[in-house]
Amino acid sequence: MKFSNRILSMQYSPIRKLAPYGDAAKKKGIHVYPLNIGQPDIETPQQFMEGVANYKDAVLKYAQSQGLDETIESFIKYYKEWKIDFEKDELIITNGGSEAISLALTTICDVDDEIIIPEPFYTNYGGFAEAVGAKVVPFITKAEEGFHLPTKEVITSKITNKTRALMVSNPGNPTGVVYTEAEVRMLADICKEYDLFLIADEVYREFVYDGLKYTSALYMKDIEDRVILIDSISKRYSACGARIGLVASKNKELIAQIMKICQTRLCVPTIEQLAAANLINTPKEYFEKVLMEYEARRNILHEKLSKIPGVVCEKPTGAFYVVAKLPIKNGEDFAKWMLTDFSHNNKTVMFAPAEGFYATEGLGVDEIRLSYCLNTEALSDAMDVLALGLEKYMEIQGTAQI
Ligand SMILES: Cc1ncc(COP(=O)(O)O)c(C=O)c1O
């Protein structure tokens, strides 16, 4: 029996594919620090749990395909605080930001169409593009430039008559980059000049450090009908399990087209939507505390990584990830080895090999992505364990390969 070429060409997520090795290590009684996945350990605001109790109906019904009124209204209110005005028919509640990405690509891409993305990029963009038969066309951003965008010419050189959109995550996963206003302006100019959509994944909007200013793609008023906003409560409120996200656009026709698929998939879970609606009542101090916590984690991670001989990594300014280049041949082999062959004081670290965050063959092979979703004490210990593991691995492998 035959499987589709689309599914056969898809990779397993580099974020999750080493999990069986992690589980095996745990079965052996080893504590595994999970730096592979962007699953925050921050407590979900109480407002979410209180919102669950707002469901009073005796029947757990389908919600409207667009989303519950309460949830839509709460997002509209949230965006107002960011000086972004949405009307009700400009947004749709989705099963996480993940579904929002999938809906956006399905709606604008035919088979063989192309999406231009800076690499390294959130690995699942590749999977979602492949699932609709579209192709990711990457342009390289470099660690030594803090993963900022290259010149306009570099980006436009990738445009063909099959290009449908530029897609960016800002702040960036896995890079931690926060684009300047000039960079967002440049993306807007390109989209305008070449008649493209700008898929703006802003799920990490709140996670910007060092007092940097955040520029949403929607601040570029002259292209607002080209912007497809991807959003989610997963990271913002540490509510990954709720699976509540959103796709939004000032382009009402686009939203109307997306609705066709949304009606087919019926709706997003009702109780989670109600609970998410109540998150709008989360006090401001929640974000202030969370931001301080992540900034402290970022500092520890970067300081410790920088001290490991041979490791190259720039200090990230947003989201909660860092890409580090290691003095080894293959990040995936090392990641597996850390789970199968190494522990220190009965502890080891799981992280994501970075190769899967690149579309260009051969790039990122000696890099890894670490997420700093652990408290400072655990993170600090995890980094010590990683440093010892790397030292041992290099000893075993011999220095010839370095
Ligand atoms: C950049 C980016 N976009 C979208 C998502 C999807 O998040 P969710 O489906 O949980 O909303 C993630 C998750 O890690 C992400 O990092």
Radius of gyration: 21 Å
| Content-based structural category | alpha/beta
Under the CATH scheme, which class of the largest domain? Answer: Alpha Beta
* Helical content class: 25-40%
Biggest sheet statistics: 7 strands, mixed
Overall geometry comes to: globular
Assigned CATH superfamily of the largest domain? Type I PLP-dependent aspartate aminotransferase-like (Major domain)
Oligomer: single chain
Q: What is the count of structural domains? A: 2
Query: Poorly predicted ranges (pLDDT <50, ≥5 residues)?
Result: none
Continuous helix count: 13
User: Could you tell me the number of beta strands?
Assistant: 12
Mean model confidence by pLDDT: 95
Our measurement of the CA-to-CA distance between the termini, rounded to an integer number of angstroms, reads 45 Å
Query: Strand order of the main beta sheet, please?
Result: 2-8-7-6-5-3-4
